[in-house]
Write a structure and sequence with these properties.
The chain is an alpha/beta fold. The protein has 19 helices and twelve strands. Helix content is about 45%, strand content about 15%. The structure holds pyridoxal-5'-phosphate (PLP).
Amino acid sequence: MADKILETSSKCEARRAFLTFCSPKTRLLHDPVSDPYEVSGHPNPAGLGEASSFSQKGSWGQSSVLFPLLETYRAADECGRAPYGGAEYGIPLTPEADAVCKKIALLHKGQGAVICSSGLAAIATTVDAFSPKAVLIPDNVYGPMIRFLNRRRIRQIRYPAGASADEFHAVLVRARSEYAKREDLLVYIEAPGSGTFEIPDIDGIIASAKEAELRIVMDNTWASHIRFQPLERGVDIVVQATTKYEGGYGDTPSGVVIAKHLQDLQIIADELRATGNGAVAPTTCARLYHRIDSTEERLNQHADTAGRLIEWFLKQPFVTAVLSPTLETSSYYERFQRYFGKGNSLFSVVFHPGLAAKNIEAFVDELNLFWVAESWGGHLSLVLPVHAKREVTTLPKGYILRFHAGLEDYQDLLRDLNEAAECLQAIDYQRLS
Ligand SMILES: *Cc1c(COP(=O)(O)O)cnc(C)c1O
């Protein structure tokens, strides 16, 4: 432990020294430099934005909701809604949660939405609500979704991460021959998928699933409502981890489910009510409510910075590939253009397979602005190894790191990469290959 603390404090010194040469914008995002041990690893414990003034007007997350008369209560209990917004009981839905749900449903042109305590909870609630026997999932699906399906003993039928319409259809036909009942199967889409960002033929999947009259759920976290509108495209239910871009500063752990059909919305709302998993802190909802408004501006800046970082990585001798559908050289570029048009903060870098892991990890540890952390979508740039497990899709060879380009000045990020990569640039790659 003493070693760890010493290590962290010298790293903090290095970060402080690095920041003195950064632009005011970058300094504002990273100041004060946090010692992860002192702030429990949380970069912005004081919170951000106008969240506090909004939440002071709200419920503060009270459990009991007061009614003037028994009759007022009775009416609220019947429909599950209080006359002041929120539910008749403060656990399933606060007025702040209500406001966020209305906003996000409108943005997706859905019939309504529910909010859950995390993106994963939004996925779990949706799957539980329809309790299928098997789910058709892309091979690059968000990892914890697999863990959830395993725990529920729900069978996973995988289709290739970048499936064509025909490839998906073949998987669906096989699944249908085993599960005759429509309710037994759920079609799940996540695109671009986690870690490696392949894009399947989304329109083809939707057409196939519709023909078979199966319910279609899509995880739209990568795109947010800004880059893709799944309901307009024919998807029935959208899940989005609002922990990521909609919240934008890493302080809104939450997830939303948006339904195209009232009937589905009711089934999902009933599931939440039955399990009591709908309680999301009003402060979180208040932040989210405001931050949603700036999603597009932030996404565009993330995308612009990611593009510049990708350009840099592509020029490095230690890089064999950058995984991003935004690249014209990507096999998914045509689909990317058709569905999303613009990128986001994410890309993965495949390192030269001849490089030792310890060299790559030393590069990561030298970085000052990129923190090692899970999740993404916030103001700070992040990096994390990708341990992708694919069953029906081939993976590139070599160590893979996923980067999230934050809101810092891109020139500062490039300087950080350049300095940290000195150790890698010195290696003779001709000899390695
Ligand atoms: C992060 C993420 C989730 C889960 O969100 P949490 O709020 O972290 O639970 C779901 N899907 C995708 C694609 C994600 O990246």
